[in-house]
């Protein structure tokens, strides 16, 4: 037994040493890796004087489009994350006994890169994503990259895939950092090794519904419970909502509104979005008390609304208040800010319609948020980060 454990330890040390050597070599290569020197794969077209991937940007939707590079970083046996490296985008190898595959030990993030009218590219609040990933990793008993490592990795990924940032007004490049337990496990417990990967994809609107979305209230399935993982971006949070969303779409609704699991009387989130209501120009949204994800777009909209002179309250919002609101909207990295046209409560036989369009509170907030993200409006808060 002792000999077997010793051999296993030596094997792991060799793997880590090999990884460190590879990373050191990658670091030396990257020292000369500038935007101007980026490899230019075949199929590059010109759009207003800048190199872009050969792609019909007018037909871009919200689906996965593989880009050129991904970023990988490793952590061995309770140590710190090594310096990462860029590789061509492609499949990864995982053991069938990896912690992420067997027990869902993983968290992820989502943020975007936007192209300005002058062709410069901006990231939006990447440090906030780094902080949220770190909090989620702690909840899932995982080590995580430092804030600096996370932000630098996002920057490198964005730079390497810059030709996939859509032209101004055509969309954005979605960036997906993923942290997962990739070490072998059989018994219930944290994995011995972890992998941090970042990949990206150009995207356009998540929801494509002119005039606002039609939602349905879900009263039988719940997204999160108190003291669960609803407040972190855990991998395991998302598959359980598929059934509610698929059923809603089959009935003609764009998305669902989940209620609190304790009483069923208060609204919490959409399937992938925070929710806000507007009544008499007063904005309210459920608090991030452990069952609701603290969205970065949510946080930004609250600050923008306060700066614009609106009263904003973070408190429990009852279903009755939702049905009595003047406006309702969703926020999130993918959805940005989507106005809601109607909410249906099947078990009550109620359907309520809301204000949408020009001059609404949601439209004013949307224009300010997207103006900052795209560089059309001066960023006085230091939210955007330019990549070179």
Q: How far apart, in Å, are the first and last alpha carbons? A: 54 Å
Structural class: alpha+beta
The share of residues in extended strands comes to 25-35%
Stretches where pLDDT is under 50 for at least 5 consecutive residues are 1-11, 17-46
Number of helical stretches of at least 4 residues:
8
| Mean of all residue-level pLDDT scores | 89
Largest sheet: 8 strands, antiparallel
Question: How many extended strands?
Answer: 18
Element-by-element helix/strand order = HEEEEHEEEHHEEEHEEEHEHEEEHE
Binned, the helix content reads 25-40%
From the alpha-carbon coordinates, what is the Rg to the nearest angstrom?
22 Å
Task: Sum up the overall morphology in one term.
Answer: globular
Structural descriptors:
388 residues; alpha+beta; eight-stranded mixed β-sheet; globular; disordered N terminus
Question: If you had to describe this structure to a student in words, what would you say it looks like?
Answer:
One of its GO terms (molecular function) is branched-chain-amino-acid transaminase activity. The structure is a single chain. The strands form 3 sheets. Strands 3, 4, 5, 6, 7, 8, 9 and 18 form an 8-stranded antiparallel beta sheet that branches. Strands 10, 11, 12, 13, 14, 15, 16 and 17 form an 8-stranded mixed beta sheet that branches. Helix 3 packs across helix 4 and helix 6 (296-307) packs across helix 8. The chain has 388 residues and is an alpha+beta fold. Helix content is 27%, strand content 26%. It starts with a helix and ends with a strand. The model is unreliable at 1-11 and 17-46 (pLDDT under 50). The longest helix has 29 residues, at 2-30.
């Amino acid at each position: 037994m002792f000999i077997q454990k010793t051999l296993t330890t030596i094997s792991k040390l060799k793997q880590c040493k090999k990884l460190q050597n590879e990373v050191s070599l990658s670091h030396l290569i990257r020292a000369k890796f500038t935007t101007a020197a980026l490899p230019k794969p075949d199929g590059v077209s010109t759009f207003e004087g800048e190199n872009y991937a050969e792609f019909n940007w007018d037909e871009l939707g919200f689906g996965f489009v593989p880009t050129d590079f991904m970023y990988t970083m490793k952590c061995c046996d309770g140590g710190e994350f090594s310096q990462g490296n860029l590789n061509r985008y492609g499949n990864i190898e995982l053991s069938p006994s990896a912690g992420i595959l067997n027990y869902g030990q993983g968290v992820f993030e989502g943020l975007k890169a936007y192209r300005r009218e002058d062709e410069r590219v901006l990231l939006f609040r990447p440090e906030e994503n780094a902080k949220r990933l770190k909090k989620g990793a702690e909840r899932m008993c995982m080590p995580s990259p430092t804030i600096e490592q996370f932000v630098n990795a996002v920057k490198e990924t964005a730079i390497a895939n810059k030709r996939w940032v859509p032209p101004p007004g055509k969309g954005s490049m979605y960036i997906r950092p993923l942290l997962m337990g990739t070490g072998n496990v059989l018994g219930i417990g944290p994995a011995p090794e972890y992998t941090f990967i970042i990949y990206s994809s150009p995207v356009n609107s998540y929801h494509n519904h002119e005039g606002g979305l039609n939602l349905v209230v879900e009263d039988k399935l719940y997204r999160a419970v108190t003291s669960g993982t609803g407040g972190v971006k855990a991998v395991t949070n998302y598959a359980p909502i598929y059934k509610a969303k698929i059923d809603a779409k089959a009935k003609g609704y764009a998305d669902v509104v989940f209620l609190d699991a304790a009483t069923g009387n208060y609204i919490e989130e959409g399937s992938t979005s925070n929710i806000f209501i507007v009544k008499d120009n007063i904005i309210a949204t459920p608090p991030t008390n452990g069952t609701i994800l603290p969205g970065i777009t949510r946080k930004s909209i609250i600050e923008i609304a306060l700066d614009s002179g609106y009263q904003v309250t973070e408190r429990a919002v009852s279903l009755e208040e939702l049905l009595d609101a003047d406006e309702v909207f969703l926020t999130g990295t993918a959805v940005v800010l989507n106005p809601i046209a109607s909410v249906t409560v099947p078990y009550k036989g109620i359907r309520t319609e809301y204000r949408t369009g020009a001059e609404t509170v949601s439209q004013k907030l949307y224009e300010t948020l997207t103006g900052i993200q795209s560089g059309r409006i001066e960023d006085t808060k230091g939210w955007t980060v330019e990549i070179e």
